[in-house]
Each structure stands twice: as C-alpha cells, then as structure tokens.
Write a structure and sequence with these properties.
Largest sheet: 5 strands, antiparallel
Distance between the termini: 54 Å
Shape: flat
Radius of gyration: 22 Å
Order of helices and strands: EEEEHEHEHEEEEEEEEEHEEHEHEEHH
Length: about 325
C-alpha cells in the first residue's frame, strides 16, 4: 500500500521509479543555483554563466552556451573534467574547450554563492587560493542522486544503503519482496536513459513470470554530447589493469584521417582494448565526429562477444565514422 496525501493506493507489487535529483551542494546560497532543468527552460541566455561541477552536464552546457557567445566558467572539484571518461581522450577534448574560450578551473571547491544587485558572485578556492567569479547565472552541474528522500521508504520496510534501495539480483527489495526498483532509483547500472528502460523491462518480466530475469549491463555505451562528442563503452585502461587482464591497446590522435578532415575537426582519436587470449573487445574510447554512433558498434561487439576479426572483416559504408573501426583495432 502507498499513501499519498492521505489517499491509500493498494497493489500486489510496487515499483520505485522516482528518477534522480541534483545532489545538495551544501553551501550557503545554494538556492541561487538553477538545476539542469531550469537551465533548459531559459527563454534567453545571459552574458556570464558559472557551472558548478565538471561532468556530463557541465561539459555539454558549456559547449552549448560558449558557441552562443556566452562567457562560461566551469568550477570543477576533481583533477579534471569528465572523470567518467578516459583521461587521455579528455585531454584531447580540452583543446576544444580552450578554442571556445571556456574557462575551466579544476581542483576548485565552491564555498558559497552570493546574490548581488547585478547578478551573483561565486566564492571558491583553488589549491588554497581564494577567488571570486562574477556571473549572471549559476548552474548546478555537480551530479545527481536517487530521488528517494521524500518517499519514507522505512515506513514500508524498504531498506536503503548510501542513499540507494538495497536490491537483489532481480531488482527486488531485499527487505520487502513486494517492492522493486528500476532506473536511477535502483542505481544498479550506469545512470543512463537506456538503462532505465532496460531495468523497467526486467522488472515487468519478473512481475509477470516470477524472478527469472536479471539486468544485463554488458556493453552499455556512454556519451557526453560535446562538440565533438566523447564516448566510452566497456573497460577503461585503468580498470583492465586493476583486474589483471592481459590486453593489447591501440591509441592514437588522428586529426588527419578523412573522417575528421572532411568536417574540419581538429580533435579525433581513440583508445581500444582487446583481450589477448580471446581477441575480444574489452573497451573502446572515442572522441571526435560520429563518436556517439560508432560507440554503439563497439557496444554490440562487447555484448555479443565479437572479435577484432569479426569487426575488421565487416564492410562498412564509406566514408562514415564506422569505416574507421578496422584501423582502430
């Protein structure tokens, strides 16, 4: 049973699919920062924007706004932008941030947001050095978390841990078998839209058939839609080494390939990891034109155990981004 403002709704099973919300910034003046949803609802762009955070949202919004003539400052606590992606490829992509005039400040902690007559002042610290950044708009781009706080899950005997519902392999609550969770609320797989859809299908099948189906997160691609985009699927170089897997790696920055030249794009490169014993794709990391599409083919290869021979002997239309795959292996 679910109670909503005094109204009781009874059901055999309950699915928690509440999505995600911005993580609290926990700083004075955090109410002055708009969320990504608020940014997308703007009628017009201001002259100066500060983005707090350095992940997907900050990267994509900074490229959008800088190309529209906005002065953009990104304040990122971590050592670099886009920590979910390969550091070498992110380094290549940062050339585009520089070309666009985006002011990226890493190792920077935002301390407070002050409202002024003409806009806002963001007070921050970089390596112990205090600084102030003036803005007409401050955007919260510091990540999201499962939106569970208002659900009072404890009242339903639904256990949580570190802000997430504790689930078994079937996306079912370990403490209340009548409750399932999917998507960002489940937080079992990568926090991506297609993963939410996949989780929903798994839960629906388990509700109809009994607990027989488990989510499968192999080969899920991830993309940050900068210009050019950056994409990844499978294991990173660091993760493969940590697992002790023997692999060969091919990595190049190739702005002189036709895929880049025909679009006058200076940033184009890749890093691919192949398991030595099986010749199967372990991971692929791309930056450049069409990376958001080509990464899906590497995802297909990982999910279905295709080898480098399978990909190299496939004939792709030319000139397309996919026609470069053979050279990436």
């Amino acid at each position: 049973m679910v109670a909503i403002e005094g109204v009781e709704l009874k059901a055999r099973y309950i699915l928690i699919a509440a999505g995600a919300r911005p993580v609290p910034l926990d700083i004075p003046g955090q109410e002055h920062a708009v969320t990504s949803e608020g940014f997308l609802e703007l009628d017009r762009l201001p002259a100066r924007i500060v983005l707090v955070g350095g992940g997907y949202i900050a990267a994509e919004f900074s490229h959008i706004t800088a190309r529209a003539g906005v002065h953009v400052t990104v304040l990122q606590r971590a050592e670099r932008m886009l920590p979910a992606f390969d550091p070498d490829l992110v380094g290549w992509l940062m050339e585009k941030f520089g070309e666009l005039g985006i002011d990226v400040r890493t190792r920077t902690t935002v301390q407070r947001i002050e409202k002024t007559v003409g806009g806002f002042i963001v007070h921050a610290s970089t390596d112990g050095q205090e600084q102030e950044v003036a803005a007409d708009l401050v955007v919260h781009a510091a990540g999201r978390e499962p939106d569970l706080a208002a659900l009072d899950l404890a009242a339903g005997g639904v256990a949580t841990e570190n802000g997430r519902v504790k689930l078994n392999e079937f996306l079912q609550s370990v403490s209340n078998p009548k409750v399932y969770a999917a998507g960002d609320a489940a937080s079992n797989g990568p926090p991506l839209t297609p993963v939410s859809s996949h989780d929903g299908k798994v839960v629906a099948q388990n509700l109809l058939d009994g607990n027989r189906h488990r989510p499968d997160y192999r080969g899920v691609p991830s993309v940050a839609f900068t210009i050019p985009p950056i994409a990844a699927v499978g294991l990173s170089e660091a993760a493969a080494r940590a697992k002790g897997i023997k692999f060969r790696m091919h990595s190049e920055k190739v702005p002189d390939w036709y895929t880049a030249l025909r679009l006058n794009e200076s940033v184009y490169g890749f890093k691919t990891l192949v398991e030595e014993n099986t010749d199967r794709i372990l991971g692929a990391h791309l930056v450049g034109p069409h990376a958001e599409e080509v990464i899906n083919l590497f995802g297909l290869a990982i999910r279905h155990g295709l080898t480098t021979k399978d990909l190299k002997t496939t004939i792709f239309a030319y000139p397309t981004g996919a026609s470069d795959i053979g050279y990436m292996l």
